Amino acid sequence: MDTTQLLKGVLDLAVLAVLDDEDGYGYDVVRRLRAAGLDDVADASVYGTLRRLFAAGHLTSYVLPSVEGPHRKYYGLNASGRAELESSTKTWSGFADTMAALLAARKEVAA
Amino acid sequence: MDTTQLLKGVLDLAVLAVLDDEDGYGYDVVRRLRAAGLDDVADASVYGTLRRLFAAGHLTSYVLPSVEGPHRKYYGLNASGRAELESSTKTWSGFADTMAALLAARKEVAA
DNA sequence: CACAGTACTGCTCATTGCGCAGTAGTGCAC
DNA sequence: GTGCACTACTGCGCAATGAGCAGTACTGTG
Q1: What contacts 24+ positions apart, CB below 8 Å, involve B102-109?
Q2: Contact partners, residue A32, CB within 8 Å, separation at least 6
Q3: How does pLDDT run across A47-98, given as a tens digit for each residue?
Q4: How many Å from the CA of A35 to C1' of C9?
Q5: Contact A87/B6, CB-based, under 8 Å?
Q6: Which DSSP category does B75 fall into?
Q7: pLDDT band at B1 (very low <50, low <70, confident <90, very high)
Q8: How confident is the model at residue A1 (pLDDT cuts 50, 70, 90)?
Q9: Tell me, what DSSP letter sits at residue A9?
Q10: For residues B82 and B53, is the Cβ–Cβ distance under 8 A?
Q11: Which of A45-54, A97-106, B74-83, B102-111 shows the lowest per-residue confidence on average (mean pLDDT)?
Q12: What residues of chain B lie within 8 A of the CB of A2, using their CB?
């Protein structure tokens, strides 16, 4: 199975969760996601997701200079983003439970 | 959040799980998935997935007549399919755990 | 015979993550 | 001081996959 397909639709949620922790900029969000265990996320995917979430009105954005490279575009959750995070978390949990039940049901039969 | 995006990559796994239970034909697999809680799966998606899994060599196929409609194309897991089910289940579980941890970490901070 | 229910196929589209190239700033090695 | 590594972001085009929708076809019922 391909992990990149599993990310579909979930990357939004992961990015929102990471940003809820603390505002962050793209490059940093990538690192935090990788540290969390999502080893395979590509940077372009994260930048794209950030842009999409921002366009959807879930994020605020501000640019700060950096001493160790080019400027950084920080993103943070606004009310809409927190609401989205909340509802997406529920959707995801429900979905994960459904899948877990489906897979467990199979094992019971096999046992 | 859109559940159809969450299905990406997972529908294969769900179909394999359902078929591991018992051989089935497309129309029936759709019903079983819906009964399991995956309400939004479209029939075309399932038929497409079955064809893909068959093309990938994970399924066997045989056609049986039916008394209540057109013939039915049954699918069943072969060794390759069961191996795929096994490994995909692990991949999915690991991924789900990672996401759960990411979301839980957020809540701890928020608390 | 029209129509609903069953069962499958094929075409096209939308979404979304990825690969890759390009731009640009800072600092270090040589 | 030129090249190179690291930081940081953008944009273009591609691939995978689920969905929408139309079409085909068989059975049974009114």
Answers
A1: B102/A14, B102/A17, B102/A18, B102/A36, B102/A37, B102/A38, B103/A13, B103/A17, B103/A89, B103/A92, B103/A93, B105/A17, B105/A21, B105/A36, B106/A17, B106/A18, B106/A20, B106/A21, B109/A21
A2: A18, A21, A24
A3: 999 999 999 999 999 999 988 889 999 999 999 999 999 999 999 999 999 9
A4: 45
A5: no
A6: E
A7: confident
A8: confident
A9: T
A10: no
A11: B102-111
A12: 9
The tokens describing A34, both together, are 């990788």
CB-CB neighbors (< 8 A) of B95 in chain A? 3, 6
Tokens of B3: 């559940």
Q: How far is the CA of A44 from the C1' of C21 (A)?
A: 12
Residue A11: pLDDT band with limits 50, 70, 90? very high
Per-residue model confidence (pLDDT) at position A66: 87
HSE-CB for B11 with a 13 A CA cutoff: 26
Domain architecture of chain A: domains with CATH: 3-110 (1.10.10.10)
DSSP secondary structure string, A27-89?
HHHHHHHHHTT-TT--HHHHHHHHHHHHHTT-EEEEEE--TTSS-EEEEEE-HHHHHHHHHHH
